[in-house]
Amino acid sequence: MRESRAFDLSSPRAAWRDLSLQAAAWFAAAIVAGMFLWLLFDLLWHGAARVDWTFLTTTPKSSGRSGGIAPILASTLLILFVAIAVAAPLGLATAVLLSEYTRREGRLGQMIGLSLDVLAGVPSIVVGLFGNAFFCVWLGLGFSILAGGLTLACMILPILIRTTESGLRQVPDEWRLSAEALGMSRATILIHVLIPVAAPALIAGLMLGIGRAMAETAALVFTSGYVDRMPASFLDSGRAISVHIYDLTMNVAGGDKNAYASALVLIALLIIINGIAVALADRALTRRVSAA
Amino acid sequence: MSPCSRDARLFWILSASALIASGLLLLILVFLAKESWPVIQNAGLSKFMRSDGWYPTEGAYGLLPMLAASMAMSALAIIIAAPLGVASALFCRFYAPPLISRMYRWAIILLAGIPSVVLGLWGLTVIVPLILAVSPPGTSLLAGSIILALMILPTVALTTEAALAAVPMTYWQGAAALGLSKEATILRVALPATAASIYAGILLAVARALGETMAVLMVSGNVVQLPSSLFDPVRTLTANIALEMAYATGDHRASLFVSGLVLTALVLALAAGARRSGGQIVHA
Questions:
Q1: CB-based contact, B282 to chain A, within 8 Å
Q2: Would you state the pLDDT for residue B145?
Q3: What is residue B34's DSSP assignment?
Q4: What Rg do the C-alpha atoms of chain A give, in angstroms?
Q5: Separation CA B219–CA B199 (nearest Å)
Q6: Which phi and psi angles does A13 have, rounded to 5°?
Q7: Residue ranges for chain B with pLDDT beneath 50
């Protein structure tokens, strides 16, 4: 029985194969970790010296080669504000409908869920094409912060709905039953029982969506545009920070120092947002466990 | 107001929202079709499937070189990322000491969250000069694949790890009772049991690679041509849209929407394949 000898712990061949798989796993991990650390230290090395309070609060000079990123940060925040202000209520309402009014295996729930999953799979640049055709041209918003924010809202809606829905589904059924036994209406149950309990999941989903939106570049190039002045209204064109990094790297000779600094700012913001999301998700979990 | 009518109103608000959210996909598809219709009507779809060049203002709409570049780059990226990703998951689960495993996992999650524009910046300033030293011009199919591989590796690693975590305890116990070595347990019990999920993870990773724009745009040179070597500069479908959309008009603009439709069809087909083989969509 040759086959079984290969599995036999005591045979030298099995021991050799054991060792080589272990070596392969360590080797692969070393490559990946090495690349990651290289990337991280390269960013810190080139960017950290430039990031300070002045960099964050002054306007870019000579196409961004020098000066800071204040208007870019402002545009980024405004674009995010639009995206969240639109996506959060829409996402919450849809998630409530999915978890409270449809059964998981029901036809309606399945259809809405499928359309959301497909939407989540559409490449972001294609959502950007749609945003350009629908918001910029058809609705006549032009290259503006409003158009960019609305495009991002389309992009983050599926993830927002799915996380909120799973948060709502984790609320134990006894809670709904006891609330109903107390004679509360469905609206009251929703506002005073379900939403407070699912709030951490909702916010975690929101943070994931914000992270996704902040990293997005391609779709914003042709929806919110390139202008690096301080935006005066939602209808102004505004340059998001990721677009700024792209522009400095590709179109501005000698812009890569400030590109590195901006990249560092972007990553710092993303890590903070992710940290909040993880903490909230953990809190949601412990709350659920202690409630059960 | 009676609670009943308040409930009814709540239900209508919720339904309207859900209608908007689920109608969004339809709206996107309708608008893509509407915007690409003029050029399909004028030139026909067959003109897009040729390789006689991309000069949309002069009526040459050959998407084939860019389609080939997109596919070659994604294929190469997954060839690099799949073994590294699966091995990363094995490392985390079976070989690393607990502290290193946790740190490594944290690094993978962080890597998944690094914006593509930042990876592109790093690729352009670090990877491209290295490739340039071997064979000019540096910005190339290979550079794009390496950066893409880094981007999609977390998807493969995290889905594989989740699948391994879901292998039933009885499998491990059975393998241990048979006296299997660690290597045999992993290669002949755990990986076959999770093959469908790993495959789904790989399909999702390829879908992500195909749809990725910014990093690819920054490091792969953007010359419209059929790649003949790893060191050739190429332009992918996504990069083409990002480069030309801001100023395109008329048939040129419409032809970019056609390329968007082609891209969407490809990506959704891959995602459907992943769904069928039992994979979960991981929002990572």
A1: no
A2: 95
A3: H
A4: 24
A5: 28
A6: -65, -40
A7: 1, 280-284
Instruction: Place A9 in a pLDDT band, splitting at 50, 70 and 90.
Output: low
CA-CA distance, B284 to B279, in Å (whole number)? 14
Identify whether the C-beta of residue A75 lies closer than 8 Å to the C-beta of residue A239: yes
> Looking at residue B283, what is its pLDDT?
39
Beta bridge partners of A60: A67
Fold of domain A54-291: MetI-like fold (1.10.3720)
Mean pLDDT in chain B? 87
Q: What is the DSSP letter of B225?
A: S
Q: What ipTM was estimated for this complex?
A: 0.87
The per-residue pLDDT for A172 is 86
Q: Give the one of B7, B121, B281 whose C-beta lies nearest to A245's C-beta.
A: B121
Say which DSSP state B185 is in: I
B150 touches A at CB < 8 Å: yes
Query: Is residue A4 scored above 70 in pLDDT?
Result: no
Domain at B54-276, CATH class: mainly alpha
Residue given tokens 């300070």 in the structure block:
A52
CA-nearest residue to A162 within chain B is: B283
Q: Tell me the residue ranges of DSSP E strands in chain A.
A: 60-61, 66-67
Q: Are B73 and B239 contacting, i.e. CB atoms less than 8 angstroms apart?
A: no
Closest CA to A72 of A248, A206, A211, A276: A248
For chain B, the domains span 54-276
